Amino acid sequence: MVIFIEKKEIDEPKSQKEKELREKWDRLRFNTKLISAGEDPYPETSHSLRTPIYATKSYVYDSLSELVKNHYYYSRTENPTLYALDKKLATLHGAESGLSVASGMASIHLACMSVLQQRVERIRPKKIKELYPQTKPEIIPNMVIHKNQYTGSFRLFTKIYPQMGIEARRVNLNNLEDVKNAVDENTKLLFVETPANPTVDIIDIKACANIIHENNGKCIVDNTWASPALQQPIKLGADLVVESLTKYINGHGDCLGGAILGPKKVLRDIRYYWLETQGAVLSPFNAWLILRGVRTLGMRMKRHSSNAMKIAQYLDNHEKVYNTVYPGLKSHPHHQIAQKQMKNFGGMIGFELESIEKSNKFIELLDQIKVGVSLGDTTSLIEYTSLMTGIDLASWEKRSMNISDTHFRLSVGLEDPQDLIEDLDQALKQL
Ligand SMILES: Cc1ncc(COP(=O)(O)O)c(C=O)c1O
Asked: Could you say which of 150, 321, 331, 412 has the lowest number of CB atoms within 10 Å?
């Protein structure tokens, strides 16, 4: 007798109760979703108030017939701790499905692969050769990206993808005519990061999604700097959203993680093909930490935003500070887009000082604000952009991204804003 094993998919509710719970989570308001969605007496979490850490690689059954009824096989593709997080994040974004992975970069790469490359199975070796990009130069796929974004994504798109036969076209996504001109019949993807790292550009998600949809391509939005508390790109027309959970969503600076949100069908392919093959799996312990962190996201984003607004106003009025960029300031060139698509303006500020000499001195003088890469947690972190995340960029690349030699990126934490202002003030006074 031959038994066909049809893999049960994790996204399909296993019982009527589970189906009703999922529908209930979708109806809740944002701050209640943060607490309940994915976890609220969920059959798979043994009725424990807190989701347990499922430290296992395999799931075992008494018989093959039991195994085929279940959707837990192997922790590279399914784990109940991670799935609680997947479901919570999908609910927060109003997405059909979610998938948590090892880091923000992993989420970006997996999401882009699912759009830019084909899923192929059971193909003859001769046929696979026809998929080599060099065999059909006239149909080389391309993606359109903003002129500046997180340096990790920039490197992935402009240094690694071209070697895989994918062209990255850099344009100013704030100039919609430039976007239209860059898109052609081989454009499969428009990648939007907003607010953009490190210059805090704000890009119009709806307008960009419309342009790429008219050309049958897909729009992926990196929502890391906003988090779903401030911006929900699927509701604005994005096809997929990626998040670095390392930042605001976990919010406590103690682990890395990433997530992809979008339609069930696409997420199924990403989970069972791209993630299963590439293996950038989140650990159950990190999923548990992120579940713990995300429950307070709404409160934290409110406080990050109000602290950052006060500090941006202080910097903007200081005679020794130049080009303070914060989406909440009316002087921000895209303030109106931010008002339209964000619920609040977030915790990230960019600014410049007068000279390299003063910049070097300033960063040494700060005390309460810590010098460090990354962002989005309780502790305020500052980076001297050109010498930290920008260190691997060529000078012309930095110029093309508007990263000057005196640019700073400040991630405003949850401290008392007056202590942060006093710290900046004492450092600026000594310049
Ligand atoms: C906008 C943005 N996307 C993605 C990432 C990468 O996230 P991770 O460090 O979790 O890989 C970062 C990191 O700073 C980021 O700022």
From this structure: 331
Q: How far is CA 12 from CA 19, 64, 410, in A?
A: 8, 20, 42
**Digit-coded pLDDT (tens) for 113-145:** 999 998 888 889 888 888 887 777 777 899 999
What is the token pair recorded at 342?
């964000």
Ligand 1 binding pocket, CB closer than 6 Å: 103-105, 150, 152, 193, 197, 222, 224-225, 244, 246, 256, 258, 374
Angle in degrees, 0-180, between the axes of helices 16-27 and 80-93, rounded to the nearest 10: 40
**Could you tell me the distance, in angstroms and rounded to a whole number, from the CA of residue 105 to the centre of ligand 1?**
6
pTM over the 0.85 mark: yes
Give the pLDDT of residue 109. 98
Residues in CB range of 47: below 8 A, 6 or more apart? 41
CA of 302 to the centre of ligand 1 (A): 21
Please name the helix (run of DSSP H) or strand (run of DSSP E) that holds residue 423, with its range, or none: helix 417-429
Find the mean pLDDT for residues 292-320.
98
Q: 385: which DSSP letter?
A: G
| Ligand 1 centroid to residue 306 C-alpha, Å | 23
Q: Cα separations (Å) of 83 from 161, 207, 319, 330? A: 30, 33, 50, 41
Ligand 1 atom at shortest distance from the alpha carbon of 245? 10
**Closest ligand 1 atom to 375 CA:** 14
Mutate to test the pocket of ligand 1, among 199, 247, 260, 383 (most ligand atoms within 8 A of CB): 247
243: left (phi over 0), alpha (psi -120 to 50) or beta: beta
Domains and CATH numbers, the chain: 16-294 (3.40.640.10), 297-429 (3.90.1150.10)
Nearest alpha carbon, ligand 1 atom 5: 104
Ligand 1 centroid to residue 315 C-alpha, Å:
25
pLDDT for res 131: 82
Q: What is the pLDDT of residues 47-76, one digit of tens each?
A: 788 899 999 999 999 998 888 888 899 999
Q: For residue 224, how far is its CA from the centre of ligand 1 (angstroms)?
A: 7
pLDDT at 194 over 70: yes
Residue 380: is its pLDDT beyond 60?
A: yes
